[in-house]
Structure formats: structure tokens, C-alpha cells
Amino acid sequence: MTNPTYREYCLIHYNKYLIETTGCSIHLNKQKIKIQRALISVFDKTGIVGLAESLNQHGVEIISTGGTAKTLSDAGLRVTGISTYTGFPEIMDGRVKTINPLVEGGILGLRDKHEEDAKANNIRWIDLVVCNLYPFSKTISWAECDLMAAMENVDIGGPTMIRSAAKNVGWVTAVVDPQDYQGIIDELDEFVEISFETRKELSAKAFGHTAQYDTIIHNYLKDEKLSNDLSLTYNKHSAMRYGENPHQSAAAYQHPNDRSKNILNAKIHQGKQLSYNNIMDADAALSCLKEFDQTACVVVKHANPCGVAIGEDLTDVYTRAFNSDSLSAFGGIIALNRTCTVAVAEAISSVFVEIVLAPSFDEDALSVLSKKKNLRVLDVGEITARENKLEYRNVDGGILVQDTDTSVLTLDELKTVTKAVPSDTEMKTMLFGWKVLKHVKSNAILLVKDNKTIGIGAGQVSRVDAVNIALKKAGERLDNSILCSDAFFPFRDSIDKIANTGIRAVIQPGGSIRDQEVIAACDDHGIAMVFTGRRCFKH
Asked: What pLDDT, on the 0 to 100 scale, is given for residue 12?
């Protein structure tokens, strides 16, 4: 026999105490429960009148508070105000109204153990609690919201009632989601009672509701992002057929009340539901796109950019980005940071891609794209610079957390370390390449010229292998190009590899113990090199 857990230990000894003091033990009631009295207090009043009508029809006494009571009364329903029920007025501007023994005792009491206590204190059982909370996240999203306003919108009585009902799952039904009202109505109509299975399912949902509420408050109040305690909460955005592979289940979740410009909030003009991989790739494309103020196009395949270009004319920019690596672009993601025109739409329609995303689309452009039925068309709204948020990654046993890399490299930070000095144009091209490089999986090597990528070596375990791939991708386009590296060169072999290829300059972080060896290699081959003093790994 295995040793009991701490929780089991506590329960055993609590039962022992009950037997010794009262002659009976605690157990969980799993029988169906008839609803005789309900307490309703909701911020979201969607569907509440319909639920209350059903309760009235089944002879259920309804107790309610404030605005909810008014809504029900105005609908002609029988309802008892909370102050009438408790015999105690709402006080302190409504801060105290439901925290009362008649309420909490009616919810928390065990019907098979606390009947005498209830009778002695005129407590009547409350069998159903319908309550949802004001979305705190909406309050703190207001520009004029300060700490005082935020704290005034922290609900106390609501979470107390919800948690009380959810705890007493053997006897009480807790409902926090309007989507569950119809299920309650149907179960009452068919069985007149609520099953334990339903109560248990709703109890879990209720604790989730209050947990999310407290998490949002907790994260709002704490000053340190990487604090000693980390709480996360998300709402289910959509279910998915599968994850990265068909044998993996998956779903998308998003931050509560998040209205930022992102893939999950995008308007889908056409095409099938986004898959797990679609969202990953589209998010990668949008993240890279946010690096640029100029007219830009980013082509992504398997979460890596395979073509990026900037310029003036959107059609030209798209063409140059796509042709950077048209082979890899097959079945990829096209991301634009300007309104998609009919000319660009026609160009895109001639190739196979999974997704086109842009801040908006001309009507004629949508008409052209609509001819490709399986193409997803995403309107993401105005595209702005990346925000400095926390990023999370799963590891076995926990998560890793870091700031988003929103750093911007400037010309003043570039340090020429070779005899050859890059031109002003080459320096500006380096900055373009660095913006793209931040979004290429390490080890990453990027070849750029004329404000477009021409070869990308991504995700290699050896830097020289990444160089080889980038050279192969670039082909005959190497003349007057620039090589960008996300981290330092540990040896001179990569520099020797690019000798006599037409590559004019290299940008890299520097910091290797063999920097002088690498600089000497550049000098040997007449290649300019600048150090950034920072790396841009994307593992």
C-alpha cells in the first residue's frame, strides 16, 4: 500500500475529527439536485432573462443584485432583491452586499451535515449560483485608467460566491458562462434536476473564471515583469483539426480582451480555418514585417523568411521578395505592410501560396484573390512596430521567459574593423539585412543586396554550413552583395568560403577569441567587415 498524499492525509484526519466530534464523516454527494433557490448576479447579461424564465417556470425562487435584479424585474420575472433577502442593505457604495451569512451559509452548507446550523440561523439553501465578473482587463485597457480606478473595479463578492458554489459541488451548481445556460435549461426540462456530472464540469469552469480574473489583477499590479511568481491566463480562440502533425491535438488561445493587431485577431476574408502551422508561419511573417517603415514584403516558409524586400512600389517589392527564393516560396506566406492592390493580387494569383496578409485589401484585389478558393486572405489592420512583450517557451518541467527582441541597430553602432571600409549605401543595406536576420533561425547567414534578400541559410548546427546554403540560394546574384551573420565567426573558414564570390562586406556581432584571425581573412580577400557589438540569435 502506498503512502497517502498530503491532501489525502489531511482528509483522513479531518474525517477522523468529524467522526470523533459529530459521529459522522464527510462525503461528496453525487446525486442529482433539484434547484429550489437561485442567486443570480452577472455583469454579462447575455441570455440571463431566458435562463431566469426557465427557472421561474420550474418554481425556482430567484435572488438577485443591483442591475441584474432590475433586468429581470423589467422582463416581468419574479425576483427578490439581495437586501430584501438578507434584511441588510447594500452599503459602502455597493462594496458590501452579498458577503453575508445568509448568502454564504446558503451556498456553502452541506445539506446532510449542516441542516441544524442552517435552521438555527434562518439560513435557506441556495442550489444554483449564476455569476460572472466584470472583465478587469477591459478596465485597465482604458487610457485614463489609474490604479485607483482599477482597484475600484476589483470584484470581491462575486468571486466569493462563485468559489463557494464551485467548492460545494456536491450540492450547488455554479454557472459563470452564458453559453452554459441552455444546458441548464435543457437538463431542468428533461430531468427537473441537475446531475453531479454537470455540477462537476461547471465547478471546474467556475474556478477557471476566478483564477483568470485574479491572474489579470496580479499581473497588472506587479511591477517586475520577471517576478518570482508567474501567472498566465488565456482564452480558447479556436479548436484545430490537429497540431504540427495529424496525430497531435491542438488549439489556439489568446490573451483575454486582446485587441492588438495580430494573427488571432485578423479578419479572414476567405479560405479555410487557419491551421497550427498556418498561425505559426503567419505570426513569423508579421513579426518580421513589423521591422519596416518602408513599403515591404516578407515571404515566410516553415517559420523562416525566404524572401524579403523593401522599396517604393508595392508590386515591385512583392516581385523582388518572391523571386529572392521562388522555390522555397512555393506554398508559403506572403505578408505586405501596405494595402494589397489588384496588381499585387494578380501577381500572387499566378503562384501557389497558403496565406496572403496585409493591413487591408482593395475590393478589386479581393475579387481577384477570391478565385483561389483555398487561399487564406487575412486583413490584420494597421501594422505598427513590435511591442516589447514577454515571450514564453515550453521546456520539460517548466517554461523559459524573455523579452521580445525589439532592439533597433543604428549606423552609429556599426564599427568597421577591416582595412576596407563599406560605403554609406552598403552600411544602410547592412541595417536592412540585420532587421531580417533577427527573424531567421540560428545559426543564420543572410545575403542581401539592393534592399532585398538573395540567399538565406537558416537553422544550421554549423555556421559554415549556413554560409554554404546561403551561397547556393544566391547563385549568380552575389556581385556587390553583403553577408549578415547573427553571431560571431568562430573560425576564418566562412570568410575564406566567400572569397572571390563578389560579396563586398560582412556584418557580424564580433566577440570571438579569434576575431583577429577573422578580420585578417577579410583583409586578405579585400572584404569590408563591421561589428555590431550585439548578436541576434533566434533559436
From this structure: 61
